[in-house]
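Predict the structure of Glycoside-hydrolase family GH114 TIM-barrel domain-containing protein.
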Amino acid sequence: MIETCTTKGFSAVEYDNPDSWIRFDGTPLEGQVPFDEEEAVAFATLLTEVAHSLDLASAQKTPSSCPPRSLANGASTSPSPSTAVAGANVRVTGRSTATT
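Done. Here is the predicted structure for Glycoside-hydrolase family GH114 TIM-barrel domain-containing protein.
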C-alpha cells in the first residue's frame, strides 16, 4: 500500500492509532488487537522505514498517548515537533527534499 502512494504521486503517508495496544485488553477476540506495545512500535517503525526508503515522509496521527522512546533506527517517538492538522495532533518524520 505504501508503494501505491509513491506511484500515485503522494509525498507522505499517515498512519493512525499507533497506540492500539492500550485501546484493547489484549484478548485475541475478533475485532480486538492482539499485540502489545513492543509489537506496535516495531510495526510503526517498519512503516516509517518503508516510507522513507521510497522517499516519502511519514506521519503518525494522534501519537500523544505513546510514551517517548528511542527507536532502533535512531528516530525518536517524542511528541516534538508536532503540528495541528484539522484538530488532530500529527507528528511528521521525513527525508529532506532540499536540492542544491
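The chain has one domain: 2-93.
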